[in-house]
Design goal:
Elements (H helix, E strand, L loop, with lengths): L12 H16 L1 H10 L4 H9 L18 H13 L7 H15 L2 H13 L4 E4 L15 E5 L2 E12 L6 E7 L9 E7 L6 E6 L10 E12 L11 H37 L1 E2 L2 E2 L4 H29 L5 H26 L9 H9 L9 H9 L3
Parallel strand pairs: 1-4
Antiparallel strand pairs: 2-3, 3-7, 4-5, 6-7, 8-9
Helix pairs in contact: 1-4, 4-5, 4-7, 5-6, 5-7, 7-8, 7-9, 7-10, 8-9, 9-10, 9-11
């Protein structure tokens, strides 16, 4: 029997159908999983399939090629992806993080040009914030842009960029005024096929998320049209980032919910089938107690995220609440994964078992989207 949670008020029949349809597609990708993990990224064909199925940019308006949904639809897709153990797909960053920057801050021409191609999978999105010497401290990025005729000339580098090898539409955080601190930060959209001076570094080998395309990026006098400034005014990049980061952090937490559900379902099934000392592992009180504790973490985390989803839909999700939810849920996710691996025993340490991959994938949840230490620091400023 699969574990259950309280049915959220934002969930309706349409959202459930979307979740089931997406789950079916993501599970069909199992046959490619080993190849993708070995190569360090998915095939571009997978992105095109997701686009054809309507699973990219589900919350973007129909006039820009999207499905005309809202954040509930993105949530259903994130749950489906994680419940299918397809952490390598960067779709929820593409659809739930990159596309909203363009929708909320781009010009009409930018929306018309880029969003339909993102919805189809023709353009794969990424956002480049982190630098080799700057992680969560976005005010002190070193990448900079200077004007030259009708173009910007961008110099610098980024690292740990999700979708970095495949992305051909990258939002780059850079300084257009290096003397102005946060007020000098701008977001410039780079179409990589049209950007001389753009270079991809190596695919980065990670502890987990082996199939997720994560890369270094280099900008060597990279030339980008000034028309690619996100919006029309320089210096708004930091404010744009702060406006969009709560949704990004909620998505990180939601991904943790989906992963916890899969881990619990797998572990309950395994402990009921696996025997030790002539009886099932499930029959031991310690097993049942540990899984009851993990189930509590899952139910509580789900309820917290459901409340945050409702707040976001009403445009009431605050910076501090998103930060605390991201911190708390990812901490619980890592606890659940550790307990589940322990109950699998030696098999839990074998990468051929999904639980081992879930364990490895979970650790970065406390790091990206802003480290959990930064989340607590950020939230404490509002107390």
């Amino acid at each position: 029997m699969a574990i259950e949670r309280f049915k959220p008020t934002w969930m309706d029949e349409e959202i459930e159908m979307l979740h089931e349809s997406a789950l079916k597609m993501f599970k069909s990708w199992d046959e490619h999983d080993e190849k993708w993990r070995d190569s360090g990224m998915l095939d571009r064909e997978a992105w095109l399939e997701a686009g054809q199925m309507g699973f990219l940019c589900a919350s973007m308006p129909e006039e820009y090629g999207g499905a005309g949904g809202d954040f509930r639809h993105e949530t259903a897709l994130v749950y489906a992806q994680m419940e299918a153990n397809q952490s390598g797909f960067g779709g929820f960053l593409h659809s739930g993080i990159v596309a909203p920057y363009i929708l909320h801050h781009g010009t009409e021409a930018q929306k018309q040009e880029w969003l339909p191609k993102m919805a189809s999978g023709e353009l794969i999105g990424a956002i480049a914030m982190t630098e080799p010497g700057t992680g969560s401290d976005l005010q002190n990025i070193k990448t900079y842009a200077t004007k030259d005729g009708d173009d910007y000339i961008i110099n610098g580098s980024k690292t740990f960029i999700t979708n970095g090898q495949l992305a051909n539409l990258i939002i780059v955080a850079c300084k257009t005024d290096r003397s102005a601190g946060a007020k000098g930060v701008s977001l410039i959209v780079v179409e990589t096929d049209k950007a001389p001076g753009f270079e991809r570094g190596k695919k980065l080998k990670k502890l987990g998320m082996a199939a997720q395309d994560t890369s270094e990026l280099f900008f060597n006098n990279m030339r980008v049209p000034q028309a690619n400034l996100l919006g029309t005014v320089e210096g708004l990049g930091f404010a744009q980032l702060m406006q969009e980061l709560p949704q990004e952090r909620l998505i990180v937490a939601i991904a943790g919910i989906g992963a916890m559900k899969l881990a619990l379902d797998l572990t309950i099934e395994y402990t009921k089938e696996r025997t030790a000392f002539g009886t099932s592992i499930w029959s031991f009180q310690n097993t049942r107690f540990k899984l009851a504790e993990c189930n509590t973490h899952y139910i509580a985390s789900s309820a917290l995220c459901d409340a945050a989803i409702e707040a976001l839909l009403k445009k009431e999700l605050t910076v501090q609440h998103a930060a605390l939810i991201k911190y708390w849920v990812t901490e619980k996710q890592c606890i659940v994964m550790d307990e589940c691996v322990q109950l699998f025993g030696g098999y839990g340490y074998m990468m051929e078992y999904p639980i081992a991959r879930l364990y490895a994938d979970a650790r970065v949840q406390k790091i990206y989207g802003g480290t959990n230490e930064i989340m607590k620091e950020l939230a404490s400023r509002y107390m």
